[in-house]
Write a structure and sequence with these properties.
The complex is a heterodimer of chains A (125) and B (256). With 125 residues, chain A is an alpha/beta fold. Helices cover 44% and strands 19% of the residues of chain A. Chain A starts with 6 loop residues before the first strand and ends with a helix. Classes of the chains: A alpha/beta (125), B alpha+beta (256). The interface between A and B is medium-sized, with 20 and 24 residues.
Amino acid sequence: MAMARKKVLLVDDSQTSVFMQQMILRKGHFDVVVAGDGREGVDKALTERPDLILMDMIMPRMNGLEAVRELRSRAETKDIPIIMVTTRGEGENVEKGFATGVNDYVTKPIDGVLLLAKIRDCLGG
Amino acid sequence: MQRGRDQADYVQKVRGDSQRLTENLLHENERLRTRLAAVDSEKLRLEDAVGRLRDELAAADRRYASLERRLEEAEEDSQRFSQDYLQVEQQNQNLANLYVASYRLHGTVDCGELMLALQEIVSNLVGSEEMGVFELSKDGKVLSLAASLGLDPQRYRDLPADRGLIGQALRTGQTWVADGESVPCRAEGEENLTACVPLLLGERPLGVIAIFRLLSHKPQIEDVDRELFELLAAQASVALYCTRLHARHGAEVLGG
């Protein structure tokens, strides 16, 4: 019996980044839902109940860290694995992300093989 | 007389004992001979078994060596396949980058959106948050900053088209990429320049994309970036030209 496809919520305001990540995720046989900023990301996480969230950090309306904070404070979304997607790979930014509750991070430009490996790792293989 | 009889009895007894001893010895000798024959036979059987086991061991050694060779070959194959897979994945990603960039460049006829797309391409696909798109003035003397990311727009607003690495990329039509060696013709403001991509419509230069500092986790420009620069040089200029054309004649062409 075929395994149910996992659903990934992609939260990013950059169309180029979304397009790129969508290509990688579809190649990895994931269903993809897209949100254009942190606020929409939180709303879609509540309605779509994704298996994992890829969260950009710098976005209008609500940035990635604020969105992660809100997701972690809600019972419905507190356990969903979140991978932070950031252009800032320095220790301080990454530490801030982990302190807020992200499970892992990838840096832009995104390496497709690495991203899929981290997603599978977060989803337990 | 009595003494003589005793001696005869004694001799008789000794003779009887000797005879019994001899018989016993002969019997024991026979028993040992039989046992020796059995041991010899067992020895032959065991020697035969050892010989067979030695043959089997030699055959097992040969099989083991052969399996070890095959395992080594399989490991080498596996390693080669892994490397091939990674190369194919890298090529896929490179093609995906080019596809995404091309799609974004030609997905709009609005100049503002095109500039945003260029910023996103440089930020997300190359890995820099310091870049500027310069357009050449009509008289060909000035490069004006049309869009920028992470730069002081006042500082780079108008650059002389004949100066520095940005001017050189425009004049020669060749992409310039920093390779770690010192460059004598850096102009003021080009200290952190990493790459200059001329925007060419055919052979006619329209401007330059200047990429400054790379993101901290990106050590240098890679082959995939160079391929992307080639695409930008050819396609971004066409896209830019289309947006300008659309701004001037769009309403006329589309009947709006």
